[in-house]
Amino acid sequence: MKIMKTFNLLLLLTIVPLCGFSEKLPVPADKKATKETVRLFHSLYELKNKGIMYGHQDDLMYGSTWWYEKDRSDTKDFTGDYSAVAGFELGHLELGNERSLDSVSFAQMTAQIKAHYRRGGVITISWHPNNPFTMQIPDTLSRRQYGTAWDVSSKEVVASILPGGKNHDLFNTWLERLATFFIGLKNDDGKPIPIIFRPYHEHSGSFFWWGTNICTDVEYAALWRYTVDFLRDKKNIHNILYAYNTDRVTSLEQYMRGYPGDDIIDMLSIDMYDRGAQFGGELDNALGFVTREATTRNKLTALSETGGRRGMSDWWSTVLLPVVSKYPVGYVLTWRHAYRPQGPRMGNPNQPFPDDFMIFYKSPRSLFLKEVQEANVYKRK
Ligand code: BMA
After folding, report:
1. Least confident interval from 92-106, 186-200, 309-323
2. How many whole angstroms separate alpha carbon 94 and alpha carbon 87?
3. Which of 8, 48, 105, 135 has the fewest CB atoms within 10 Å, i.e. the most exposed one?
4. Which residues pair with 125 in a beta bridge?
5. Which residue segment(s) compose the domain that 11 sits in?
């Protein structure tokens, strides 16, 4: 009897791994995602339990005192290693421009995306598209935010670009340009480079034309679904993981307003900047419900934008690190160090205090490029 039991157990131990039951990882929403995109999803899914990747927007493009120098990065200048996640921004690509709203050349951006992929790093892309509705109204030309992503002077924008709306054809042209850019992201073998795309971000705020008081939640979800259908199903692009995102929220209910669906989204992310003493508690609360929901839905997670409190010299070690260490957050990204030829802005909250940042860097919880290289995120078995 005992021998039979042992035999059965051995049989089970052999068969189960063969059937793949032992390690059934969730998959991206795109059922046709490329092999490397699936591997990236799996890697990120596992890495979030190991530590938190550090990301930096435009890290490879410029710093506040330099403008595109080959292989240079502020993260590398500070720590000797690159950020695990490199952020890029597509605003004005939709207009057919050669440079982004932050003056970055799209050709150079493509080259840097390829370079970071070659190093084994993770790529995330945001998009601040112009306002397709108001940019066509010339008599508002004098207004400061005229026609930009921040132009919230009309509530008709999203409705106007969805099917049946008067700007639908224009919006399709914009998505075509985006598709061309994504299709151009190929590795040395001609295979598509996997990326995380985070459009229509911070929906819970009302400072972008897709914001919560500027369009309805139904319109917002429809915008998402239309965009993903266009890129994934119409243009056959299968190297994208899609990140849903809000600005600060205090409840899961608020977070999920406008959520387009698990068949569209791969990552539940949130943006929260430190604006005062209550930040640690608010972040703790938000990361609690966002990561719990992500786990329930088998999705990835990120604190996709954050930044320290102005003038606080131990923010990384005493505020950010203790809170993010409590949760399976995939990455934390700090925003761009805007280039200022006249010298960095004093007390710029985005500029890490190098000594304190080094505490974050040295923490076993934080993952920079070297650790991600070891995980071999695109090639894992
Ligand atoms: C914002 C600011 C802007 C920038 C935009 C897109 O948060 O940094 O200056 O143009 O992001 O990168």
Report:
1. 309-323
2. 18
3. 8
4. 88, 197
5. 2-136+147-375
Number of domains in the chain: 1
Q: What is the mean pLDDT of the chain?
A: 92
Cβ 182 vs Cβ 195: under 8 Å: yes
Whether 141 is covered by a domain: the verdict is no
> What is the pLDDT at residue 10?
45
Q: Which tokens is 376 given?
A: 């071999």
336 C-beta closer than 6 A to ligand 1: yes
Structure tokens at 344: 């960095």
Alpha helices, DSSP H only, in 20-73?
35-47
Cα–Cα distances (Å) from 143 to 26, 102, 105, 161, 259, in that order, read 47, 20, 27, 22, 32
Yes or no: say if 312 and 275 are a contact pair by the CB < 8 Å rule: no
Distance between start and end Cα atoms, the chain: 38
Residue whose CB lies within 8 A of the most ligand 1 atoms, among 336, 345, 348, for a mutation test: 336
* Type of residue numbered 169: D
47 assigned to some structural domain: yes
- Residue 47's CATH number: 3.20.20.80
- Contact 128 CB / ligand 1 (< 6 Å): yes
3-state secondary structure of 196: strand
Is the pLDDT at 351 greater than 90? The verdict is: no
> Measured in angstroms, how far is the CA atom of residue 333 from the centroid of ligand 1?
14
